[in-house]
Structures are given as C-alpha cells and as structure tokens.
Specification:
This protein is mainly beta. Helices cover 7% and strands 40% of the residues. The protein has two helices and nine strands, in the order E-E-E-E-E-H-E-E-E-H-E. A five-stranded mixed beta barrel has the order 4-5-7-8-9.
Length: 125
C-alpha cells in the first residue's frame, strides 16, 4: 500500500480543516522496499511523466569506492536506521556492510537507485 501524505486535518487549536479538494494520485508516496542480501533482483516501476525507476529488491554485490570495483557482500554489520535490520540483512543508506575487501558504509539509497554503492572504511589484511 502506498502512503498518502499531506496537510493534517486538524489545526493547532484542535479545530478541523475542511478539505478543498480530493487527494490526487501524484501525491501518493511509494512503498518502502527493503533490500536484502541474495541473488540480484531489480524491479522497474513506472514513475510520474512516464519515467522509469529501478528499484533494487536483492543484491549480493556492491560497487566499492575508491576505485569503483564490484565486490561481494558478505553481510550487514550495523544499521543505524533500525537495529533489527542487521538480523534480517537489510541494506539501507548508512548501513555498515561486510565485503570481501573489508568493512564499507553504504552511500547510495539502494531501494531508490537500483545499485549498492559503498565507501571502504576498514580494509581487510
């Protein structure tokens, strides 16, 4: 289910605002897509204006910077967005992931960008 956002129906005083029109389809938000570790799966979604968005559903490799090389993701070490995401191996922006080259921090929004870009923090010896 997509989420509807908009002005609150209540004023700061507690009174009600009367809606001046109905909700429009373009005001709807998109669903949250948790990116898990697994065989790479993408979903192409039609966006406003006929544009296409690529949503990442699963990923098993990331583009590691500096250098821009593709490396395998081993697991999620830490996720400030939600501590339960570590157990479920869900990748979000800001997540600390374990790769073949070492520990890296995710700098892209995988659910929105369709790719996992990460910055190397600690290199494995």
């Amino acid at each position: 289910m997509a989420q509807w956002h908009g002005r609150s129906l209540r004023k700061p005083t507690g009174g009600r605002y009367k809606p001046h029109r109905k909700k429009k389809k373009y005001e709807r938000g998109s669903d949250y897509v948790p990116v898990k570790i697994g065989e790479t799966k993408r979903k192409v979604v039609r966006a406003r204006g006929g544009n296409l968005k690529v949503k990442l559903l699963q990923a098993n490799e990331c583009v590691l910077y500096p250098g821009g090389e593709k490396v395998k993701i081993l697991g999620v070490k830490e996720n400030p967005a939600n501590p339960h995401f570590v157990r479920m191996n869900i990748i979000t922006k800001g997540a600390i992931i374990e790769t073949e080259k070492g520990t890296a921090k995710v700098i892209s929004r995988p659910g929105q960008d369709g790719v996992v870009n990460a910055l190397l923090i600690e290199q494995e010896k």
